[in-house]
Amino acid sequence: MSAPAASPLVGGALTGFTRLSKGLAAVLVTGFIVSQLFPPAVDYLALVPGKTIPFGWNILTAGYLESTFLGLIVTIIGLLLFGKLLEPIWGSKEFLKFIVFVNLFTSLSTFVLAILLYYITRGDNYLYVPISGFNGVLAGFLVAVKQIMPDQELTAFFFLKLKAKWLPSILVTFSSIIGFLTSDTILYLPFIIFGTYVSWLYLRYFQAKPENSFKGDPSDEFSFSTFFPDFLGPVINPVAIICEKTFCGRRGQNEDNEGHGYILGGGPLPGSDPVEASRRRERGARALEERLTAASASGGESNTLKVTKVGHSENLASLENV
Length: 322
Hints:
Layout: H1 19-37, H2 42-45, H3 58-61, H4 69-90, H5 92-121, H6 125-128, H7 135-148, E1 153-156, E2 160-163, H8 167-181, H9 189-206, H10 233-259, E3 263-264, E4 267-268, H11 274-297, H12 302-320
Helix pairs in contact: 1-4, 4-5, 4-7, 5-9, 7-8, 7-9, 8-9, 11-12
């Protein structure tokens, strides 16, 4: 049996990047060149809260402007690699929609935060410092990886192995610690925090599923509390309940019969949720494949392998009927 293909995040040649990712990389390079050749353009393209009114377009453009060469290189590498992973799964339209959504609402949230900080501290730097960068979307890509392949192990610093589901939490925690030690926190930390949260909101409640009319991912494995250690559950769960009531109330009324399967007493029957059923099928298929691989490697009798294969097919068929 052939080995599974390597994830773009953990191995593989640096080829096969999507056309959309390369196009967005070209936009980022163009923005960087413009900012270096015409420095005053930064005041109009970056998010400058004190100038957002009347220059409202900087909420749209700030996320696509990198002001440093190092930031540009990191952004392009991240965009190409994550695009190579996510775009084939989502499709180009959904991949672009995700980027636009996260960039827009990350900039908008940062604008509101800067205004609040100004009224609280009266610090002019919150109003007139240019804020820009693609790091909000890069943080959002980590959330998408957490959703798609949470148990994938990645190697950091050549020896530290981390599961993909913890990457968003590690990024926010590390960035927050650095933020407390530096004076330019406003330049990057809000984009990372809001990018992480906004991307989770989108994937959790709004992302359309082409295979059915269901939206979002209501599975327990992608709940808000999974971004935090278990002992913080009692503190985090009330926030999650507010999100559920805010974003799921109307969805539950409109899509009970379409997205959640069979309904009993206003809620889905156990096992009828299509996302959970899909996850169970995948887990069952992986377990059966591992057993089949072990049987093949042990050099067992051919009739044993035949029985295993038949059982494999029957189990997959039964999983499809779940």
